[in-house]
Structure formats: C-alpha cells, structure tokens
Amino acid sequence: MKKSKWVVVLVLMSAMAFSLIGCGSTTEDTMSKIKKKGEIVLGTNAAFPPFEMRKGDEVIGVDAEIAKKIADKLGVKLKVEDMDFDGLINALNAKQVDFIAAGLTVRPDREEQVLFTDKYFKAVQKIIVREGDTKIKGTKDLKDKAIGVQKGTTGAIVAEEDYTKNVVRFNNGPEAAIDLKNGRLDAVLIDNLPARMIAEQNPGLVVLDEKAADDEEYAMAVRKSDKDLQKVINEVLSELQSSSRIDEWVEEYSFLQ
Fold it and tell me: Is beta strand 167-170 parallel, antiparallel or unpaired with respect to 147-150?
C-alpha cells in the first residue's frame, strides 16, 4: 500500500515538473526570442509607396528604414515578411511576425487586437480619377460609384460606409489603378502619398484636391503582451522624429521610380 502511494506521488511530481517546463517554454517573451534568434521579423505589405515597396527582392521605403533602425537598436538582423495587408494582424497574433509596419492607421477596432506604438505620420484619404473625368469632381460625386480600394485599409471602410456599396477590393493600390485606367472603376480611394505616387507613375490618372475623410495617423503594432518591444520601438521613433529623419525618408522615397 505504501509502495503504491509513493508511485502515485512520483507520477504527480513528474507531471508537475513537465508542466512547469512546458510553461517556461511557452511563456518566453518576444524580446528574449528575438535576442536568442538574432533577428526581428517585420510584417508588411510591400505595395504601399513610399512607406513600403519592392526593389527587386528587397523591400524598401520609409517603414523599411525605420524597421532597420529598430533592428539596429536591438543588435539583431531584420527579416521582412511581405504579405496581404488584411492578413497582417492575424499573422502578428499568430506569432509569425514580431511587429507590423505598413502604413497602419490607428483605429479603435485595431486597438482591440494589437498594441500600437507612438504615432509617427499623419495621412489623409484622397480620390484618384481618370484625367478629364467630369463625373467625379469631389466626394459628393462618389455616391453609388464603383470605387477601388486596398483590402483591409481605412479607404475600404470609408468607401463603403460613406459613399457606396459598389466597393472593389484589391491586394494593393497599383492593382486598383490598373482597373481605373481601363474604365472598370470610377475612382480609387487611398492615402495621400500612395495616391500621388500612383498618379505620377500612371499618366492619365489624377488626384483630386478634396480629401475623402478626416486625417488619420500611422503607428506600428506589436502583440498586446509585448510592452518591452513597444518601448524600444517608441524610443527609435522618438530619435528619428527629433532628427527629422522620417520626413527625409518620406521625401526620398516619394516619386521614386
């Protein structure tokens, strides 16, 4: 009887030890994993110039430059995962990436899912139309029109909530611009800087003066539990803003051919 009791005790102790080992491995924080692996993984959508775009196999742009500074601050390499914009938050919370930098607007619905960093850029939604199109001169003319947007963006929400149910969603702005040029859309709704670059690179398209929505602000995002990483990113953003480096990158990457 005593022997069987000791067997039970040993089994229970082994189970507890295994449980503690398992807990230790699952609760290792993101900062420790980054340091151990020697790299930090950025999640982005490299079709949103001048913040992120492709140059061959490389992702370049304002957010890419900031991300490099974050990696430097941590003393690790930067790895970039390029994916659809509307999949970024899921990828972050599934631990496929460590942080998001993708011209990401701070919104209440997103604040429920991620921890935002400090804001670092102010943007506004603009309307792209075909040059000479007299049907759309401003927001009042967007009602019930076919509007192209990038999936998961503020522009997609604004278009559907404020203007029309005929919203066509694309993986990125340049894809929407192609359909606009070919007459399959009446307008494209997207942030100001990407809108200007799309118009510059697509003769026959123009950006209207009137803004399509209230101003918005970009921030980067980490998982809710990653306050230490948020703090590091905020330090980098503060350093870059105080030196006007972000503004310089915006200028450098705008209208880059």
Answer: parallel
d(CA 179, CA 197): 16
CA pair distance 212, 162, nearest whole angstrom: 9
| Close Cβ partners of 236 (under 8 Å, ≥ 6 residues apart) | 66, 69, 70, 73
Q: What is the pTM of this model?
A: 0.79
Tokens at residue 5, please? 């009791």
Residue 136's nearest CA partner among 186, 197, 101 is: 186
Q: What is the pLDDT of residues 53-108, one digit of tens each?
A: 999 999 999 999 999 999 999 999 999 999 999 999 999 999 999 999 999 999 99
DSSP one-letter string for 170-219: ESSHHHHHHHHHTTS-SEEEEEHHHHHHHHHHSTTEEEEEEESS--EEEE
| Tokens (6 digits) for 84 | 């659809």
Residue 191, amino acid: D
Q: What is the pLDDT of residues 143-181, one digit of tens each?
A: 999 999 999 999 999 999 999 999 999 999 999 999 999
Distance CA(102)–CA(221), nearest Å, equals 9
The shares of helix, strand and coil residues in the chain, as percent rounded to the nearest 5, are 45, 25, 30
Report the C-alpha gap between 154 and 150 in whole angstroms: 9
CA distance 115 to 89: 11
One-letter amino acid for residue 187 of the chain = A
Chain position carrying tokens 């990696």: 71
